[in-house]
Write a structure and sequence with these properties.
Blueprint lengths: L6 H10 L13 H5 L10 H10 L17 H5 L6 H15 L8 H12 L28 E4 L2 H5 L4 H13 L4 E2 L10 H5 L3 H18 L3 E4 L2 H10 L8 E4 H10 L12 E4 L13 H8 L5 E3 L28 H11 L4 E4 L2 H13 L7 E4 H8 L1
Parallel strand pairs: 1-2, 1-3, 3-4, 5-6, 5-7, 7-8
Helix pairs in contact: 1-5, 3-5, 8-16, 12-13, 14-15
């Protein structure tokens, strides 16, 4: 069934988030040439911009949900069009009308978990800090330097709780003053916002902000680049400014100042995958590499697409929750790139990336040739 969205509503929604594309986009097509979707299928973000300019006919059109918000198009656009903002604006309209293609329907299940228990998995809120049991992780107090905010995936996902544990062990070893809030935390809300549910994002954000302020939080340490981006760049919309630090920034500093000693050897060939929300969106490229280069025995090899040209894993923009055909996963190409350069391990610093890359390692039949690691897991092994 076709749902016609009024032209006026589309333009106003785009303007509301700062993207008056009607005066900017002149359909040069550079965005299409750099979009990772065109490595796996035909897709035109330029077409989406044109539709937003002149009125979108079908808000349930699947293509408007494909953008992973990787930022490559924004990075290269000669006219300053913010394609991500336009894509999110269109998704907001679709959410308002409650019309979604089949591939997006899983997001509605995620919404239920976020509303009920503050996480996308439908897990009980009281178990959010369960990963810390037996690791002597303290409850956050105002006298502590950092609130460690692990993200939903390291809090609940069986594979990624290893990242939260590794991080906590490293922080304790380095003498860092930190604590967690456990069941008082909500999801940061970044992905559901990019998936179009602005109202739910605001609810999650406001609850987190109140919790942080009540607890006396000044500095927030995160494992996820998505949490980093949201706390640092989006929560200030609510007139709050916390100091936000990604774990790679802190580890780089601790190693350089001698507060964290990497005594062991790690005799492996590794390659590093730059997460979009750590690299392109926030400019953190060197810190993770500095950490890896500080580990004795590591041979660091760069892949074909790295630094600002890093290939997206496909999990951003809420797509980590959406259905993607096996043959259309960017992460498949990424693990193939890692194997091509001779890496034994593909290392990253993002829970979403690990989730996507672990799936692709199996889908591509490369599970015996490549290991996926978070950078904290390697550091924890050599301290």
């Amino acid at each position: 069934m076709e749902t016609v969205t009024p032209f006026k509503e589309i333009i106003e929604e785009v303007k509301d988030i700062g993207g008056d594309i009607s005066k900017l986009c002149f359909q040069c097509g550079i965005c299409d040439t750099v979009c990772p979707w065109n490595l796996v299928r035909n897709f035109s973000i330029r077409k989406i911009m044109n539709q937003a300019n002149y009125g979108l006919n079908e808000v349930e059109n699947e293509e408007m949900w494909l953008c992973s918000t990787c930022g490559k198009c924004v990075q290269r656009c000669p006219r300053g069009v913010v394609q991500i903002d336009v894509s999110v604006a269109l998704r907001r309209l679709a959410t308002t009308y409650q019309v979604f293609p089949a591939s997006v329907k899983p997001v509605r299940t995620v919404v239920g978990g976020l509303v009920a228990d503050g996480n996308p998995f439908g897990e009980e809120r009281k178990t959010r800090g369960k990963w810390s049991k037996g690791h002597k992780v303290k409850k956050f107090k105002e006298s502590m330097e950092y609130l460690y905010f692990p993200c939903c995936y390291p809090s609940y996902d069986k594979r990624l709780t290893n990242v939260a544990v590794a991080t906590a062990e490293i922080l304790k070893k380095a003498g860092v003053s930190f604590g967690i809030l456990g069941d008082k935390e909500n999801c940061c809300g970044e992905s559901i916002r990019k998936a179009g549910d602005e109202d739910l994002f605001k609810t999650l954000a406001k609850e987190n902000i109140k919790t942080f302020i009540d607890a006396g939080v000044k500095k927030i340490l995160v494992s996820s680049p998505h949490c980093y981006h949201t706390f640092k760049n989006e929560y200030p919309e609510f007139s709050v400014h916390f100091e936000v630090v990604h774990i790679t920034e802190l580890l780089d500093e601790l190693i350089k100042t001698g507060k964290l000693l990497l005594k062991g050897e790690y005799n492996k060939k590794v390659t590093y995958h730059d997460p979009c929300y750590l690299g392109r969106h926030n400019g953190i490229y060197n810190e993770p590499r500095n950490i890896l280069k500080s580990v004795s025995g590591i041979e660091l090899i760069e892949m074909e697409d790295s630094f600002e040209n890093s290939l997206c894993c496909g999990g951003g923009g809420g797509r980590v929750w959406m259905e993607t055909l096996k043959e259309e996963r960017f992460s498949n190409l990424r693990v193939e790139q890692a194997v091509k350069v001779g890496a034994e391990e593909l290392v990253t610093a993002c829970p979403y990336c690990i989730t996507m890359l672990e799936d692709s390692r199996v889908v591509t039949g490369l599970e015996d040739k490549l290991v996926i690691k978070d950078i904290t897991e390697i550091v924890a092994e050599v301290i």
